[in-house]
Design brief:
The structure holds 2 protein chains of 2 kinds.
Chain A (H helix, E strand, L loop, with lengths): L2 H22 L17 E7 L13 E2 L2 E5 L5 E7 L4 E8 L3 E7 L5 E7 L7 E6 L6 E2 L7 E6 L5 E5 L15 E5 L7 E2 L7 E6 L5 E6 L10 E6 L7 E4 L12 E9 L2 E11 L9 E6 L10 E3 L11 E7 L2 E6 L2 E6 L4 E6 L10 E7 L19 E6 L16 E9 L22 E8 L6 E6 L4 E7 L4 E4 L11 E4 L39 H12 L25 H8 L25 H7 L9 H12 L19 E2 L2 E2 L7 H13 L1 H4 L17 H6 L5 H9 L2 H4 L9 H4 L28 H20 L11 H9 L14 H14 L4
Chain B lengths: L1 H20 L11 E6 L5 E6 L4 E6 L4 E7 L4 E6 L5 E6 L5 E6 L4 E7 L4 E7 L4 E6 L4 E6 L4 E7 L4 E6 L5 E6 L14 E6 L4 E7 L4 E2 L4 E3 L5 E9 L14 E9 L4 E7 L10 E6 L5 E6 L4 E6 H22 L38 E5 L5 E6 L3 E6 L4 E6 L5 E5 L9 H10 L11 H4 L1 H4 L5 E2 L10 E2 L21 H12 L6 H13 L15 H12 L2 H4 L10 E3 L11 E3 L21 H6 L11 H12 L2
Classes of the chains: A alpha+beta, B alpha+beta.
Amino acid sequence: MNSLHHKILYLFLPLILLLYSCENSASDTGVISKLSITEFDEVVFVTRKMPKDGHWYANFGYYAWDQNNKLFEEGSSLCKLNIKTDKLEVLFKDDKGTFRDPQLHYDGKKILFSYRKGGEEHFHLYETDTEGSFLKQLTSGSFSDIEPTYLPDDDIIFVSTRCDCWVNCWSTQVATLHRCKSDGSEIIKLSSNIEHDNTPWVLSNGQIAYTRWEYVDRSQVHFHHLWVMNPDGSRQTVLYGNQTSVFENPGSCLLIDAKPVPWSNDTILATYSPGHGQREHAGYPVLISLSNGPDDLEAMKFVNKKKDKGEKVYDPVAINRDLLMASRERALVLINNVGVEKSIFKLPKDFIGGKQIIFEPRPVVARKREPIVSSHLNAEKEYGTVILQNVYEGRNMSGIEKGTISDILVLETLRKPVNFTGGNEPLSYTGSFTMEKIIGKIPVHEDGSAHFNLPANTPFLFIALDEKGSAVQKMKSFTSVVPGEVVSCIGCHEKRSLAPTNYGQIPIAMTKDAVFPEPIKNIPSVIDFPRDIQPILDRNCVGCHNPEKRKGGILLTGDRGPVYSHSYFNLMAHFQVNDGLNHPYPLNKPGMVGDMYSKIIKKIESGHGNVDLEEDEIQMIRYWINSGALYSGTYAALGTGILGLMTNNDPDQTPVENKEWKKATSVIKQNCRSCHNELMKDIVSEDNLTWWRSRVDVSSGNTDVKRYKEAIRFSRHIIYNLNQPEKSTLLLAPLAKEAGGYGLCKTGKTNSSVFKTTLDKDYVVLLNAVTNSSEYLNSIKRFDMDGFVVRPDYFREMKKYGIIDENTLIKDVNPYKTDSIYWSEGNKKYNN
Amino acid sequence: MRLIKSSLILFLGILVLSLTSAFEPIKNQYVSPEHIYITKDNGTIYIGLSTFSGVAVFDIANEKITRIISMPGAVSGVVLDEKENILYAGSRNNRDQIYVYDLINGKEEASISIAYGIEELVISNNNRLLFAANKFTNNISVIDLENQKEISRIEVVREPVALSVSPDEKMLAVANLLPVQSAMDKYISANVSLIEIENRTVVKNVVLPNGSFALKDILFSNDGKFIYVTHLIGRFNVLTSQIEKGWINTNAISIIDVKTQELYTTVLLDDIYKGAANPCGLEISEDNKQLFVAVSGTHELFVIDREAMHSKIEKSKENSKISQSVEEVSVAKENVKVFQKFSAIKQMEVLFEDIPNELGFLASVRKRVQLTGKGPSRIISTKNKVYVTSYFSDGVECVDLNSFEIQFIPIGNKDVLLSEVRFGELLFHDAGNCFQHWQSCASCHPGNGRVDGLNWDLLNDGIGNPKNTKSLLYSHATPPTMISGIREDGETCVRAGFKYIQFFDASEEYSKAVDSYLKSLRPVPSPYLTNGELSSSAKKGKLVFEERKCNQCHSGNYYTDLQKYEMGVKGRYDKQNVWDTPTLIEVWRTAPYLHNGEYEDLDGVFKQGKHGLQEFVSDIDLKNLTEYLLSL
């Protein structure tokens, strides 16, 4: 080049540089260019179709009620794109299969991903290179293995259905965290969750960030936020969220796909997927600073600072401080630090058959390995050890005098082998979705300390009990230990950011040997209302609260309604039991959840109606309430013995699709509605109250108390008596006293009872309908009825888990025994 | 003439420039810069080199080391007189000497003899006094600057390591490294001694939160209202089963209210997911707005908005009031009201009384600046920059307070391959090798692998039996290790320490380096020796030692026969009563004594503990025996 050229170049150099910097900086000015990306040139992503189910997690496997009804879509590809040249390479495609969750190795050369081969049922883990020159299958079996990521020691952490359980409030399978060697061997289970654990990523300190979904005596649609564990499964702790108050302002959300950002050790990038989470994690990128702890709402910043947060995206990753990359439908988009977006690539509309969406874009770039966290796991032990420093410390423990708490009650939150609906029936009436097993008690020393061993890899929760056995405080989350782990906590609901106090001496419990929970004598580990509670009511309560006397308008007999027994429904619907409802408040004042202030206990203690219960009867009721106040003591009850059974969220109309009910419906319409408005319809319709959260609505003020009280008085759960149809309130209330009825319903003009005698033709119509329903129930059988046979889906899944052997006939399955084996074996499966 | 003058200036300029550029980083020897002094015009920094015989001079304008002032030995504290003509430097080798260097004449003038163990120097110009912290004699030397003579010694608590003079020069604050009390006490704390300069008396030993130790630096705020002191809080009442959530050591700044002479509060430097191991140097900006902390274990500079920190503390007092008022609200017992919200305090709000336990308290008011070197020690600041001595990297880090860009200025040769011993020393102090960076080996073994004065419940011999931290001096030479003898040897201990205390799987290379460092530790000569010899009392005590057959167990070069013995009465938490015989070398600095640290001095060991002396011993024999032991 001659000197003139040089001079010209120098002359224009500042201008060129200026232009270049304008074009290439993704600064606050909103100018975005893919050319500014210096970190990488290539991106790997998958394309697939949008799954049909609306839940964020429901995109593999099948619906419980129909094994042939699959949740995944067919037709998918794994691609590599050069973002600078727009050159798109299809590394793999499968017209009938599905690709998902690609992850680059630390060397930036290998790709780990999940793939369901066309014609196959399950997703497995595979590896290839960035050229797609080989395809190596790592895992196999009749499980779906998804969302893998490399660990710094080259092992792989992934999410799998190997946990053998189902979503507690939907008809799909659960997948949780597992770990394997780099070749897919030596699989161990890391999480003990009974709900989904998703999207593991390694944080810069070597720990694993992931999304844990849990209910545990709270609600089913609110708590799916961020947790952290060591790569050996130990130290499972909240990372961000899990307290409602944090999410009151922006509303409930799923926080998922949390991953480190390259510029900071204490900031993570996650997807805020609104509400109960959106299909395929659609949501808004949020940056969360971890340094203020899990409860700081201010720590979460929407990248797009606009009020509407822009359009939702999928699977954002941080490129640098200024730029994120994500996908939206067919486009790959860049988003800068003020939320300005630019689409940098668009998939052809007809790409591999069309309807393809880009998911999980990952930069092809090498990255630094995180430190390896030392594992203190001892595989020879079957338990871990917990040290509680001082039970009186913690949020909402003030006012509890030292010495009040005598024991810690250990409960296990029980995995579900199958599930069919989004509701809580028939396990509870608008309460828990999950059964709890009473494991035993641990003594608490006078300084509030306790030292105990727990079986490994099992989800436990604790209740602080006073001397009477009353629940002072209930843990509304779960914890678990890995074999040999020694884990310590300060107190109850301790603030995450507090270090332990030096009280001046070591906790007394530390000077004693660790104890195992002491089983409770004369209390079954899982309480079954008809078996364990009803006999107590029969002895003490039904003398007044029977269909004849019906004192206070309350029935406490064990007669069956369409879903529950009358006694169970009444105790729950009339708030006699503080079961924790299905409510999203994580922290409560002492005693607020459990027996302590439950009205039924107050009635017993105050001698209501001169009742005088034996101490062991009172204890049984306390334990029933404290373990969630459930109706059935077996999960085999799910999807069985119900009139108006919900399959997914639609009630089954079969019980009323007959002439008896057609007539009865019209009688009800003509005779009852003039006074009782829309309250009554038929035996499968849910009485104008939300079918899964009626009590929550009234307790939180969403439903008018008066309306609620009316509704539960005329609820289908109480007016139909399927044991003794003629004792149905539906029949007795309008029947004249002289004819053996209550004489409550009078006709307008004559002020006489609606039915003067049992010969009234409308009376007969109604009786026939209830009798028809009674016969229907007898034919389908409820869990507490003689001749009950488990549902084929329950039978199928239990066989799949190896709990029921191939030779056993469905009619011979004992549900209680089968559940019990399933819980104990399930926790041991894939253990270290 | 003008031409000549200008030429001369130019010549001198070139000369200065050439001289300046002539400085070459020191090779073949570690210099370990530590203490630091800045001239009043903010023009020059003097840096004490703690493993090299010299003081480095740093020119701020040119951001260069201009020269090394040669000293007779390695240096601890450095300070200049009022006119900044004389440099005083504490001697690290002859720990009872202060070097006096005339900066005008460029030569060492004299040295001042003081008490033993000099660690830091400060000056009070109004009072014409120089103070020296004497780590090993537990006192402060007061030197009259007029005649450069030590005129008195003020006894403080234990191992004074840092000093600060109040802005009005009426008070001297002293940071004592360690507590002096039985490790079985319910409340254990190293103290801050407050000395009235005028009458040279300790007016108050301020007690810090329970578990406070390893005080490293101390500083008055520029308005004289507060004293800041860096230290650790050992959570010694709980076992060492986990490190996250501040379960073993937390790292803190205590704030003392000067007016009341009471502890105001203590803030933790640690974040919830990342510790700030072993805070050391402190500095406050000229405008009193920023507080700087050198975090030696994580190699960071903390820039704290001092005013915002104080506002946050005051706000927490309001939170405490609100929280108390909420607690008075009666519990709603009606079911419908069960789920009403009950506290006006958000779950993340901090209550005043919780601050000393609140991880991440400073997160919103401070910036963590990762330095380029290892082992930041002391800090000084100008308007725009902060200078931090980098102990293991042999240089000074210059941090721009606007851009937070860092310039590393080498004094020694930074890139030289570390010897195994030096590498081991670095690892010993480096919390980068600890899960979430909460602590390093040096946290529980401050003062080059010695003691922290606390009892710890390690899991190696079961739970619920805490034992006193042992000095690591000669631990490799005197197996087995741990006072219980549960570990076979020093090597096993080092590896277990990494795994079980730092939750880190160290490579064999790392462990070997730490072995080498620990093996290289040599005893500091006892301050009880007279001219390096046993005093006459100690000589008599030696005879008692032999007569009473103390040397049966405490035999040989290391005063231990390497055997375990059953030892009389079981302590409160003991699950065993058989203990390894420890070395007696440096026993003068390893209090408290016995396996559970029950006795704060040897008197207690013999009189109450009846250790090894079942038969009557006269008071005079006991005094002589103690004198002998303290001389080892």
